């Protein structure tokens, strides 16, 4: 792994552009992870485009500019990496993703394969099973009353449905969360989180590489469906395992943190839990609002393919631009009472799943898991109380908790 | 400024003013038309902005793309010959008066 082969493009000494507000905050620091909202506000108010001295990158934190960058993929490309590392200058730590880290027209083809594998029609096939598993999980937790909402619910539930839906073997599944955590840490700068994750990555990488092969995927699962598309000629036999890898990278830890976010919201805002209980059909929106409110995927980068003007500022070619999805999702220019978790809010348009051609291709899986879990809670649980110290988990991209001890009572 | 009408499943019409260049879905969301969910925000990913285009208007809309066609198969309510995704219907003055019927459900 060439994680240590850093080059000068993103070092602090990099000459800073004139006119753009400079900030010395580090969005990949423990201080930031503990309280991003205060610094998000500083970033948004400093200007529509800012310069982050620490890593030598541009940043956008207002909704309008985040949305604009996401929706101009030809100028703000993904093929040079959606982390800090610029693939034009530095070798990626793993073979480049052929969907997330690709631009049109290459992206269009791989994207349409995953969009069909994870389509609304495909969701209809797994919905009943996902619903039953969520209900069973909540029943089991009601017999325990006190538990850790991260390990025992936010992790346990997706682990009980997603690996099976993919068609993975039982053995080795304990590698899935560490692998995902690695992938999301690796989008960050070469800080301790990234370096340590990459140093420990070999066994997880070996596991994932093997599970992406056709012979290790049960027929009928999402993984096998991807391989079937290679038979149909839509992708090559070499591309299929890489697309399976995309789902193994992005399909589990994200929903863990999404469901974790929703649980943390319902535990903190009992009036919203009461609203949800009075109308369980709000479950899907309650989950969506938790994605807006906490933004489990906090940031992604783009790289400029040419000189461009953004909100009146000139940005040169080959510059990294960091998009603060979490800050955009609470921008008061776009949202009324942005810091309020409101299960009845019209959430359409938030950028927690991104926007434009790379907008999360697994969003229907995420919403399905979130909806059925919150619907089970709405029907079966009367109260949720935080009953121990809440601990945050640190990751360069994912926002979530390490531990959320709660006590629930039956309805 | 085109003005368009959404007809709710109970027959109630809701007439709204749209902006030139925005999609029917965007106009509906801005005016809080309840029957349009638009979970994916118009990225042709969710099929929760499904509408039935009123007779007579269908032929005047631009043809649908492959994405839209595939997604409509997964829409929650029955797919009909006049089914479209409202996020893919871009409004301009030539669509002034457009009538879109809302399905009984989007999920
Ligand atoms: C709450 C859960 C989730 C959140 C918050 C989330 C967030 C995101 C975001 C923000 C992007 C955009 C990346 C970019 O613009 O560069 C994205 C893309 C993606 N997501 Fe998700 N995601 C979630 C769940 C899932 C699931 C369940 C899967 C798979 C089953 C998945 C697979 C992907 C893939 C493959 C991409 C790349 C799409 C492309 O580049 O065209 N995600 N996700
Ligand atoms: S808004 Fe999602 S498909 Fe139209």
TrEMBL record, chain A:
The keyword Heme applies. PROSITE patterns: CYTOCHROME_P450 (PS00086). Residues 1-22 are annotated as: Disordered. Keywords: Heme, Iron, Metal-binding, Monooxygenase, Oxidoreductase. The keyword NAD does not apply. Its cofactor is heme. One of its GO terms (molecular function) is oxidoreductase activity, acting on paired donors, with incorporation or reduction of molecular oxygen. PANTHER family: CYTOCHROME P450 YJIB-RELATED, P450, PUTATIVE (EUROFUNG)-RELATED. This is Cytochrome. It comes from Bradyrhizobium retamae.
Automatic annotation (TrEMBL), chain B:
Gene3D superfamilies: 3.10.20.30. Its cofactor is [2Fe-2S] cluster. GO terms for biological process: P450-containing electron transport chain. InterPro entries: 2Fe-2S_ferredoxin-like_sf, 2Fe-2S_ferredoxin-type, Adrenodoxin-like, Beta-grasp_dom_sf. Residues 2-106 form the 2Fe-2S ferredoxin-type domain. GO terms for molecular function: 2 iron, 2 sulfur cluster binding; electron transfer activity; metal ion binding. Signal peptide: none annotated. SUPFAM superfamilies: 2Fe-2S ferredoxin-like. Keywords: 2Fe-2S, Iron, Iron-sulfur, Metal-binding. GO terms for cellular component: cytosol. The keyword Metal-binding applies. Belongs to the adrenodoxin/putidaredoxin family. This is Ferredoxin. The lineage of its organism: Bacteria, Pseudomonadati, Pseudomonadota, Alphaproteobacteria, Hyphomicrobiales.
